[in-house]
Amino acid sequence: MTARDVIRRVRRLEIRTRRLVEESLAGSYHSVFRGRGMEFAEVREYVPGDDVRTIDWNVSARMGHPFVKKFTEERELSVMLLVDGSGSGRFGTDRTTKRELATEISALLAFSAIRNSDRVGLLLFSDRVERFLPPRKGREHGLRVLRELVTAETEGRGTRIAHALEYLERVVRKRAVVFLVSDFQDEGYERTLRIVARKHDVVAIVVSDPRESVLPDVGLLHAEDPETGDLAILDTGSTAVRRAYADAARRARESRLATLRRAAVDRLELSTGEPYETPLVRFFHERARRAAMAGG
Predict the structure, then answer these.
(1) pTM for this prediction
(2) Which domain range does residue 59 map to?
């Protein structure tokens, strides 16, 4: 990919994702992802109806009548994108590859954060940490994150989610919103995910392709595992083979969802075979509704 191709693709992604942010997500972002809490702003005189728990007794004693503390929400967030760049992301049989879908979703989330003056960072991983960009503000930094996603050639082929999460814990000390974007073709990460989710607000974005769950009838099929390189020949003309393939895919999905539920993280499932806008907006709106109910 030439420099001109990179610039053109980054620009297209920025335009597309900015449009979706402004048209569909801007109103939900503030409600969905809150700041780190409330910070002190000032004191003012007490008026009937104020919560007595906010009375500043020291100031009140000095002034001879009650004053209350006024707080404002500390809105500034750090948003971390943990993006799976393993070999299985190159798979795609419909509209796009899983890696391209992950890149576009990550771009959208990055510009959502930047539009709200939040910081955004990137951790691209495979079976190792491939790239790390600390969270920063601004459009230029957002474009750098996007360029890394578009151009990065990963060295590793496998997937080690636990390793990426452990690295995150070491380098991001303050609470952050963490989007883990992966096809989750990995095992043994539940304990680490559960630990990280206690500190950070973690959202799992699961990307998949339709052919990972349904095998077409195309005769003998030579298949290669993109992460291990293992080769296999599948007789897709056999009903039993296709059924066994679908059953294995279903069990893998159920196991993955059970893992995410036990780790107490939100999840969003997206497929290369379908537009992502509607499920993404629905996820934002549903999470905003839950946040409003919890706050009320």
Answers:
(1) 0.82
(2) 37-74
